[in-house]
Amino acid sequence: MQRLPKGHKKLLNAWASYDWANSVYSLTIVSAVFPIFYGALFDKGEEIAIFGKFIRSTPLINYTTAIGFIIVALSSPILSGIADYLGNKKFFMKFFNYLGALSCIGLYWFSKETIYFSLLCYIFALVGFWGSIVFYNSYLPDIAYPEQQDKVSAKGYSLGYIGSVILLIVNLAMVMGAEEGAPQIQAMKISFLMVGVWWIVFSQYAYYYLPKGNTGHKLTKDVFFKGFRELKGVWTAMGENERLKKYLVAFFVYSMAVQTVMLVATYFGEQEVNWGGSGEKTMGLIVSILIIQLVAVGGAILTSRCSNKYGNIVTLIGINIIWIVLCVYAYFITEPIQFYATAGVVGLVMGGIQALSRSTYAKLLPKTEDTTSYFSFYDVAEKIGIIIGMGIYATVDLVTGSMRNAVLFLVVFFIVGVVLLMRVPRKDEK
pTM value? Predict the structure, then answer.
């Protein structure tokens, strides 16, 4: 097939469509069905034997999540360096795509009796999702001109939210339509199968049009650590690009808080809101998740328009201020209606801040074909931020005994993020 030129409508649509394919993982596995499944599988306070030691189910899944992000943070520089050197980022994007999707299918067999296999599937699903995102994001400067990047980035997130909500509604209809107990557990397991199949099938449209990558070279033994050398080179090069370096530092700080909120929101609602009963709690959390996803579509589009009018940095400052207000308000939430209202605003700013952060970074990059290394740096910064953010959140929760205090503490990151964004030069920002 003939390679489409940069900026071509079909190429942009194909790139954005991958969000439609992979976002079902982040919604069904990370936010909705799997957390409910995991809570139903283990009794509250139940301990599991792992490597000869007993650990409660909740910290077990948190540690497992952290391990997954550590693997991503360590492996992506190596693989992105190889991909850029060989000039075949599509191959690596496919590899992680299929690794993640097949691991989601493997979650169908998640059980206490197969806990090691189960946790490995959970880890590989996480690694597959985030690993593919490194190469997916790195395509953005290759397929879109700077003036197109905000819009196509927002379109990708919007498609992701729409697609993931469609599948989630189907999955939740299956779960809520089943009898309580084993039938509901089985319905949840089938939803994991559907996530894997959806992810593989709908990613094919993107692969049909996305180019293989830049012309590369043959693989040699010292290429394996090329990614780490490139990350060091990227950081050194940023010393000559004040705007990019200051922006990345700001992103690192506020992204800690954003990603932490996204990972703990369901658990916060489960523990801190007076739902009434278990049935009301399950339905309430489901409704909240749907609200976030549906509002996020409009949030990504609205943010793109605001960035066109006011500039990327100014818009990001405004969104971070909204996050500050949200975290303070969350401290006082006790009733479902308050949680629903907060979920709506979270959805509005969640999609916007992710889409705009990605496209702002892309626009600030120097003119180079080595985009994968720059986006690998971006990705590693984000993952280290998640590990630090989750660690601090868990520590505050552990020490104070309250998730409310932990959420309130996130305000510090958003305030620092605002200050750092204000220091980013805004000339020729649009």
Answer: 0.74
